[in-house]
């Protein structure tokens, strides 16, 4: 998947995974690795731009906040259950 065909965040993530696999290959030349590094930097910048421009709808924001509150409550319960009772 060449850089120009990457249109959304998931495609950027997939392409970055491909780049990592290629660069880790012992058969990849230094020159090719450097070209892929440049592509990865550009893709990373595009991903950051996408995240910066992303806005949740009020409904999505409420749902995300509710899930966060539930996770925090569950973590609090888990940590209380894991700590020994020091009151005697």
Please, could you describe this protein's structure?
The model has no long low-confidence stretch (mean pLDDT about 85). The chain has helices at about 10-25, 30-55, 60-80. The longest helix has 25 residues, at about 60-80. The protein is elongated, with a radius of gyration of 21 Å. Helix 1 (about 10-25) packs antiparallel against helix 2 (about 30-55). It is mostly helical. The chain is built from three helices and no strands. The protein starts with 8 loop residues before the first helix and ends in a 6-residue tail after the last helix.
Low-confidence stretches: none
Secondary structure class reads mainly alpha
H/E series, N to C? Answer: HHH
Give the overall shape: elongated
Radius of gyration: 21 Å
- Give the overall average pLDDT: 87
Cα separation of the termini: 63 Å
The major pleated sheet works out as:
none
Tally of helical runs: 3
Helix content: over 70%
Task: Report the β-strand fraction as a percent range.
Answer: under 5%
**DSSP summary, beta strand count:** 0
State the oligomer.
single chain
Please tag this protein with its features.
mainly alpha, 88 residues, elongated
Helices and strands, with pairings:
Layout: H1 9-24, H2 30-53, H3 58-82
Helix pairs in contact: 1-2
What does this entry show, briefly?
The protein has three helices and no strands. By secondary structure, the protein is an all-alpha fold.
């Amino acid at each position: 998947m060449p850089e120009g065909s990457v249109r959304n965040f998931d495609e950027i993530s997939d392409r970055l995974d491909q780049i990592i696999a290629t660069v880790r290959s012992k058969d990849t030349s230094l020159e090719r690795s450097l070209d892929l590094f440049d592509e990865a930097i550009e893709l990373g910048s595009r991903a950051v731009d996408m995240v910066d421009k992303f806005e949740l709808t009020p409904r999505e924001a409420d749902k995300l906040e509710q899930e966060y509150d539930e996770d925090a409550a569950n973590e609090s319960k888990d940590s209380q259950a894991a700590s020994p009772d020091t009151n005697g």
